[in-house]
Amino acid sequence: MADGPAVGRRASLRLRITVAAVLAVALTLGVFTLVFALVQRAVLDDAPRSAAQTDADRVASAIEAGTAPATAAAGDTDDGAVLVVDRTGALLAAGGDDDLLEHLTDGSVGDPSALGPTARIDGDSYVVATESATRPGDDASSGSGSVSGSGSGSGSGSVDSDDDDSDSDTDSDADSDADDADADTNADPAATVTVVAVRSLEEARAASSASLVTLGVAIPVALLVLAVTTWLVVGRALRPVEAMRREVDAVTAAQLDRRVADPGGTDEVARLARTLNDMLARLESSAAAQRRFVGDASHELKTPLATIRQHAEVALLHPESIDGAALAGTVMTEEARLTGLVQGLLVLARADEGALGVGRRPVDLDDLVVTETARLRGATPGLAVDATGVGPARVDGDEGLLGQVVRNLLANAARHAETRVAVWLVERHGRAVLTVDDDGAGVPQADRERVFDRFVRLDEARTRDSGGSGLGLAIVREIARVHGGTVTVGESPLGGARFVVDLPAGAA
């Protein structure tokens, strides 16, 4: 399972970006096509549905206006038909496409008035609209006639006339009864009929299918164009990155001066190039500092060891020229110098690794200053050490490291002072400020930052003879930094150098 992420990232970034872009666009186009197909079908199906409803409404209105069903339903369309059926399902009239009418009337689709909103007829899709209409009945009226006869003359043809009148009355009664019977027979009360209009959906479906086919061809082509374009664009964008990778891959410890080509501009590639060049510059500076540090440390360690070896060889070759006490004193002096150098190197090494542990607890800094000034007076009887300006101050930190700060500053001042060293300690505005002045030559303005570098000696001959290693002030700065403080150097009122250590004060 641990190999899963590594396997998943074996493909190049160029390929992954191309695949991701194509998949994202393909998913988007797929959703768009689905929605488009649904909306298009609904829109295209609406036209024949409206036409069928219009046909049904037209025929129903004509029938209700008194037009005969056969006349109202008459007409010929290529994609539809109209049927009029009575309440029993009997076909009264029909009009439209002959083939469609044949299928609607041969009984294969059942009762046309019972069809749903859509129907499949002979493999084709149709939309169906129905409408009810009420046929007006025919008004029946009975026929009446009056027959009048006049006779002239009196006396002749009376029998015949009576006979004729009698026959006329008989015939008139018979005709009246026949007319009444016909009127009763022909009278048709109002009846309800159903108008069924059918329209074909094939044209709408053909248009929808054509659109889908077009999209089905266009979308793969668009995805192919997108894939090719993305592949080329990403490849072009990553070409400088690949060149940078090759350049950085060729950098070795012996070639830290190499730099990647800066394409210029403010885009991500240009910023990456500048970041890589800054990183290489830092690595080169760090490697140079490390080589210088190792060389200086080796030189510093070699000097006391050479002194001890020289005295030991003299004692072996010429035992009469040096006594044991002098040899022991030399060895002890150089051993102390070695011990101080090694301790300083360890402190700086831990500081470089971020492992300079600081035990946070309240420390009376004034007690440390008083102790170290008293020790300095005892070690250098001819030097005036003024500690009258030392006031109470407390900080949270490591007592041993803070003591080393005071000790290194006083030792540095003693090495460079002519006759006097003054120490000041005050606590104000939540800060503990330690100041060490001397009346020596001071530190030139140009060297006031460099003096805190490792193995830096502004007076090589004097400091080497007095045992200085060039690490004391570097150690002071590192210890002050891990305690959240700073150390600076300036000009002293005594005429020499003034070192000021500013630390955050602790709880009283």
Give the gist of this structure.
The chain is an alpha+beta fold and 508 residues long.
Protein described:
Helices cover 54% and strands 17% of the residues. By secondary structure, the chain is α+β, with helices and mostly antiparallel strands. A hairpin with a 2-residue loop joins strand 3 and strand 4. Helix 8 runs parallel beside helix 12 (472-482). The radius of gyration is 60 Å and the shape is rod-shaped. The two termini are 57 Å apart.
Alpha carbon gap, first and last residue: 57 Å
**What is the spatial order of strands in the main beta sheet?**
2-1-5-4-3
The dominant shape is rod-shaped
Roughly what is the average pLDDT, rounded to an integer?
Answer: 79
What structural category characterises the helix and strand content? Answer: alpha+beta
Q: Note the beta-strand portion.
A: 15-25%
Low-confidence stretches: 1-8, 138-189, 460-467
How many helices? The count is 12
Please compute the radius of gyration using only Cα atoms: 60 Å
Largest sheet: 5 strands, antiparallel
User: What share of residues is helical?
Assistant: 40-55%
Element order, helices and strands? HHHEEHEEHEHHHEHEEHEEHHEE
Number of DSSP-assigned strands:
12
